[in-house]
């Protein structure tokens, strides 16, 4: 029983030592070693015995060193060596940890910046704390104050209140107000991060660029709307043409043909003197029928295209147009070289020029018009370039127009796989450019017949 009571405190002491650090345990070992040496020296006269043994080495004066101090020095050296090894091991561990941390940060930065999604960290005021290159690419150039409250197309304060309530808000299509004014649309997700002990509340935003897709959808929607308008206009024009042709045939040709038929019936019963008069009347009525049919054909298709070609037909078109608009100066630069254009290209080029002149007379209030028709070469392909420019009041191209003139021109050109371009501005005039691909390569054209800078007019000012 006595041994049991004596052993329990020792077990408790060793159990408590197990919870101490190595430095604390080593310190206790040094103190215990010095204390044990002191106790043994006092109890067994170790100091006198050691001094007696050291008399042999009197020349070294070893007896002058107290035994307890000597033990203390040895234990201090042992303690210092163990602390140095611990510090050295700790330094190595920290270096390895810093290397892993640096590698992890580099990997995180690479993944963060290399992500195609625009990632941004905001505070509740909209200030940017951190963002990646994708966000910079989507929203650039960012304003100098690095605040995004005016960047998104929603009211910031109601958005913050709603986000705090719902914790997450998604946008299928969100417009970005870029400082440079370029269109930008994204799908976005915003997540609210509640404040913690060492960090204020944050908003994590994830943006996916959808600008190209949205612009294509807008262009498709505009094209569908224009096609509906154009189809409705085409049906109206078709009905108008049918009514016009029916009226011409009934009012002009029909009446004269009826008169010719009546004269022919009368001719059978007439005398030779009456037959001469009736024959003259039949010839006159036949001439009127021919003139009516010729006028109808001219209305349906410009005969000048067949007789004069594209250049001659446009020159006659401009000449007739100037008679109706004498105050407008019209400058022509027409040169198709020696290349023979096919019928489809001739009709489209003529109708586009005709429609452009009609729009100028109706809307432009211009004093000068430039018409450029040339065969040019781009990227080893030959094109017929049509340019009609005026110095009129122009238009705002960002606004939709209800007319079908421009839509008709675009549809005619694109039906032959060409390209149509409209450039205009308020009080800046209008430039219409059409490019029609040629089926076959033209013959060798003289250098003077090709523009040195395709797309730029070079007109005489006279």
TrEMBL record:
Organism superkingdom: Bacteria
GO molecular-function term, one example from the UniProt record: kinase activity
Residue stretches spanning the membrane: none
Domain Histidine kinase/HSP90-like ATPase: 344-440
SMART domains, per the entry: HATPase_c
InterPro entries: HATPase_C_sf, HATPase_dom, PAS-like_dom_sf, Sensor_HK_TwoCompSys, Sig_transdc_His_kin_sub3_dim/P
Gene3D superfamilies named in the record: 1.20.5.1930, Histidine kinase-like ATPase, C-terminal domain (3.30.565.10), PAS domain (3.30.450.20)
UniProt xrefs under Pfam families: HATPase_c, HisKA_3
Keyword terms, alphabetized: Kinase, Transferase, Two-component regulatory system
SUPFAM superfamilies (UniProt xref): ATPase domain of HSP90 chaperone/DNA topoisomerase II/histidine kinase (SSF55874), PYP-like sensor domain (PAS domain) (SSF55785)
Protein name: Histidine kinase
Organism (species): Methylophilus glucosoxydans
């Amino acid at each position: 029983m006595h041994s049991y009571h004596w052993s329990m405190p020792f077990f408790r002491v060793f159990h408590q030592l197990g919870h101490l650090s190595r430095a604390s345990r080593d310190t206790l070992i040094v103190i215990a070693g010095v204390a044990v040496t002191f106790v043994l020296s006092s109890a067994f006269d170790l100091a006198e015995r050691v001094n007696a043994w050291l008399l042999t080495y009197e020349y070294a004066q070893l007896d002058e060193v107290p035994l307890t101090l000597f033990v203390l020095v040895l234990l201090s050296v042992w303690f210092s060596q163990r602390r140095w090894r611990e510090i050295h091991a700790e330094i190595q561990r920290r270096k390895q940890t810093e290397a892993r941390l640096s590698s992890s940060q580099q990997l995180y930065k690479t993944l963060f910046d290399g992500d195609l999604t625009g990632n941004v960290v905001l505070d509740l005021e909209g200030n940017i704390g951190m963002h990646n290159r994708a966000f910079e690419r989507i929203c650039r150039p960012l304003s100098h104050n690095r605040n995004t409250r005016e960047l998104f197309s929603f009211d910031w304060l109601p958005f913050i209140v709603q986000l705090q309530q719902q914790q997450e808000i998604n946008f299928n299509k969100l417009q970005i107000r870029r400082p440079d004014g370029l269109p930008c649309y994204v799908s976005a997700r915003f997540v609210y991060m509640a404040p913690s002990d060492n960090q204020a509340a944050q908003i994590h935003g994830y943006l996916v660029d959808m600008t190209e897709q949205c612009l294509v959808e807008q262009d498709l929607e505009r094209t569908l709307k224009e096609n509906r308008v154009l189809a409705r206009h085409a049906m109206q024009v078709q009905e108008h043409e049918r009514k016009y042709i029916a009226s011409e045939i009934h009012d002009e040709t029909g009446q004269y043909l009826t008169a010719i038929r009546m004269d022919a019936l009368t001719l059978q019963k007439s005398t030779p003197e009456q037959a001469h008069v009736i024959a003259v009347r039949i010839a006159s009525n036949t001439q009127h029928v021919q003139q009516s049919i010729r006028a109808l054909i001219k209305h349906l298709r410009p005969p000048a295209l067949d007789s004069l070609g594209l250049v001659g037909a446009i020159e006659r078109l401009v000449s007739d147009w100037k008679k109706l608009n004498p105050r407008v100066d019209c400058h022509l630069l027409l040169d198709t070289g020696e290349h023979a254009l096919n019928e489809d290209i001739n009709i489209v080029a003529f109708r586009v020029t005709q429609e452009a002149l009609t729009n100028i007379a109706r809307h432009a209030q211009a004093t000068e018009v430039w018409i450029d028709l040339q065969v040019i070469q781009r990227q080893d392909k030959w094109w017929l370039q049509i340019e009609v420019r005026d110095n009129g009041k122009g238009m705002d191209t960002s606004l939709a127009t209800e007319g079908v003139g421009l839509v008709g021109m675009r549809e005619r050109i694109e039906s032959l796989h060409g390209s149509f371009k409209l450039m205009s501005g308020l009080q800046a005039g209008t430039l219409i450019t059409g490019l029609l691909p040629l089926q076959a390569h033209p013959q060798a054209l003289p250098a003077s017949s090709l523009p040195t800078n395709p797309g730029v007019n070079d007109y005489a000012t006279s």
